[in-house]
Design goal:
alpha/beta, two-stranded antiparallel ribbon, 5 helices, NAD(P)H-dependent oxidoreductase
Length: 175
Amino acid sequence: MKVVIISASPRKNGNTHLAMNYVFDYTKSKNLEVKLVNLSEEQIQCYRGPDEEYNDATKNAANDVMDADVWLIGSPIYNSFFSSALKNLFEYVNYKKTEGKVAGMVIMAAGNIGFIDVQTLITQLLSYFRVITNPKPVFLTVDSISDNSLTDESAKERLREMVDETLKIAFNLKN
């Protein structure tokens, strides 16, 4: 089973990336094929249409998403919406190659507001791609981060549970 971790914050050293690094490390411990797509580092080009030529980083990120069986997506909340970098990445994804995949999500915010709205928006996006979404996302605030690392043990436990439950859904669908 192939898993792709998508860290959708365009900010270098963003809080979302710290959480998704934790998810990446935990998921790697499951002995699965795991890739990390960090949208702050990957040099994903702005989508300009289907007939344009794009750099290798952009093509590779889109292929990593389409090739994976499981998507673990982390997005910050910006202006009551998920990251535009995430939306841009999905412009390259062919919905004909994504049906039946499974996704889990992590949503990071400055405070306890807007989580359900952004969960709904990401779920709607994933529904377009015919992706089955784990109904239990992880909502995190910046309070779970200190000294440039994820320090909240409860947050870590919720992230591990989301990974385990999302993988379980994917395994059950494959069998």
